[in-house]
Amino acid sequence: MNNNDVMVLDAFQTIYMWIGRGANKIEKKNAQKKVDAYIQALQDGRKEEDVEICEVEPCGEPPSFTTHFPEWEEEVSEQWMAEDAFAAAQKKIKDESASDKAAVQQSAGSGDFKDPSFTKYTLDELKAGIPDGVNPAKKEYYLSEDEFKACFNMTYEAWEGLKDWKRKDFKKKAGLF
Asked: What are the pLDDT digits (tens) for 150-164?
């Protein structure tokens, strides 16, 4: 069982519907329809109005549900709900990448370097060399917004979306590398 599963347990007077956290709207809707159809098809003398339908939340299973599973262990059910290892790895990589980008952006204005948010130079000044206090790896950020757009034909936001190799190519063409 995984966190996308839907499970139905018929305990005679109660029908439990366990729906995993990863189940989508269609799976949830179909689970209810299947339970309703199941109850309609009962031929054991039970009446529809005498059967209670109980939706069970993952990791919040009541004892009346878990007692039907003699080997039930809370730790195991929590593992079912654990994030998929691949999805967890992707999330970790994405978070680290965002963190690295933020650190690189901050480094342009930290330490011995002047903050490019407040310190601007012309393209010619930056092409001529490295002005005092300018982070040589981030020269482009010391351009005014208008000059940046004129030089690279894009905004800072578009620039941030580019791959590193593409930025290096642009910087070489502009003479800022």
From this structure: 999 999 999 999 999
List Cα–Cα distances, 174 to 38, 104, 133, 160, 166, in angstroms: 70, 21, 20, 17, 13
pLDDT of residue 109: 45
**Coil, strand or helix: which one is 75?**
helix
pLDDT tens per residue across span 91-109: 778 877 776 666 555 554 4
Tokens of 48: 């529809």
How far is CA 54 from each of CA 13, 21, 71, 114, rounded to the nearest angstrom?
A: 10, 16, 21, 63
> C-alpha angle with apex 159: 155 to 165, nearest 5 degrees?
155
Cα 99 to chain center, whole Å?
Answer: 14
pTM (whole model) above 0.70: no
Domains of the chain, each with CATH number or no CATH: 6-82 (3.40.20.10), 87-174 (1.10.950.10)
* Residue among 97, 17, 114, 92 nearest 62 (CA): 17
Q: For residue 143, what are its two tokens?
A: 């351009």
